[in-house]
Amino acid sequence: MPICSETETSNVLVINEEGKKHVIVVNNLNILLYINNCKDYSTEQTDNFQRFVIKKLVAIELKINAIERHQKLILEKLPFNNNEDKENIDVSHDFPLKNENDLQDMENKLQDNEVYRKQLIKQLSRVTCRDIKTSCIHLMRKVFSNYLAANYSWYGAKKKEKFSQLQICKVIMCE
Predict the structure, then answer these.
(1) d(CA 33, CA 30)
(2) If I label 118, which of 29, 67, 94, 166 is the partner at 20 to 30 A Cα–Cα?
């Protein structure tokens, strides 16, 4: 007569039958079934097994629903829609900005052309990394030449121009 029991971890179901041990392991959405000769189990044991499997499937469904909700939230936060993704503008040829004229041209493009602005944000986001300081250094080196960057400070200290008021600053800061 087979004996069906659920272990204390609630992830393993062990079925013993006349010297044969059948183990069903459910752990972290990986389901491994080791069942041989599943014939003569009673209705009670079958019901126990079905309840166990249904409980695990419900848990899996809840986790999938949570993942789906999080994925939708992430997609809503992305600043691009499908129409803009299809229109690829190569902004790499505009960088690094070498002088004030290049910077002024870039400022005008960013102010007048929303599609260009979003494409620039998208392409510059590929330069970033997990560390904010390193990301900032990489972005500044890509966008500005040393000659042009030397003329700017955040608030315009030491008679320099104000970087914080530029459109390119807002793009870098994703505002």
Answers:
(1) 10
(2) 67
Is residue 167 classed exposed, middle or buried when 0-12, 13-18 and 19+ CB atoms within 10 A define those classes?
A: middle
Is residue 27 helix, strand or coil? strand
Helix (DSSP H) and strand (DSSP E) numbers for the chain: 7, 6
Smallest CA-to-CA distance from 132 within 173, 95, 170 is with: 173
Distance CA 67, CA 50 (A): 26
Tokens of residue 175, six digits: 């505002």
Contact 127, 138 (CB under 8 A): yes
Tokens of 44: 């009670």
pTM above 0.85, yes or no: no
DSSP string, 60-88: HHHHHHHHHHHHHHHHHHSS--HHHHHS-
> How does pLDDT run across 96-152, given as a tens digit for each residue?
889 999 999 999 988 998 888 888 888 888 777 778 888 888 888 888 898 988 888
Please give the structure tokens belonging to residue 84: 């803009």
Mean pLDDT for 46-71 is 89
